[in-house]
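Quiz preparation item.
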């Protein structure tokens, strides 16, 4: 079997894009004192945090809370990393047994098989099954706070 050849065009394009990005960041920092890049970074973090919060609120409004038991884990590989998505079993609104993969994967098989957990699920099936807990809110709050902080710093810096 012939070994795969790397596409040198892709390498050159990547280097050119990286160089252009670095040049824009230097110009932004030295000429505009970081204002435009601060707006982009702060805005992106804020929007991502807000989008994750909206997703959580949508599930709370549309979803139903159910006691479940972890019956296994589905493995998913990404480059060199392995993520384990808990598979849970619970009883739905009309009494049917539901088996579903949750939407959050971990580097470890947690919670362990047999553990009792609380899940939110969408009876209509539009939203993925979610493990409940405060950790669902940590990332959105951190992203929104960091983004807002960067935007405030940009605003204060532009005033002075």
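Solution:
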């Amino acid at each position: 079997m012939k070994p795969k050849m790397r596409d040198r065009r892709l390498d050159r394009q990547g280097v050119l894009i990286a160089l252009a990005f670095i040049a824009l960041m230097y110009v932004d920092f030295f000429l505009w004192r970081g204002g435009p890049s601060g707006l982009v970074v702060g805005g992106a973090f804020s929007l991502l945090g807000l989008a994750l919060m909206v997703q959580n609120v949508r599930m709370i409004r549309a979803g139903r809370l159910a006691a479940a038991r972890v019956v296994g884990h589905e493995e998913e590989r990404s480059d060199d990393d392995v993520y384990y998505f808990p598979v849970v079993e619970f009883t739905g609104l009309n009494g049917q047994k539901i088996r579903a993969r949750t939407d959050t994967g971990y580097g470890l098989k947690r919670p362990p098989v047999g553990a009792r957990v609380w899940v939110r699920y969408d009876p209509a099936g539009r939203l993925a099954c979610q493990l409940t807990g405060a950790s669902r809110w940590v990332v959105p709050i951190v992203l929104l706070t960091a983004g807002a902080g960067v935007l405030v710093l940009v605003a204060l810096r532009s005033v002075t």
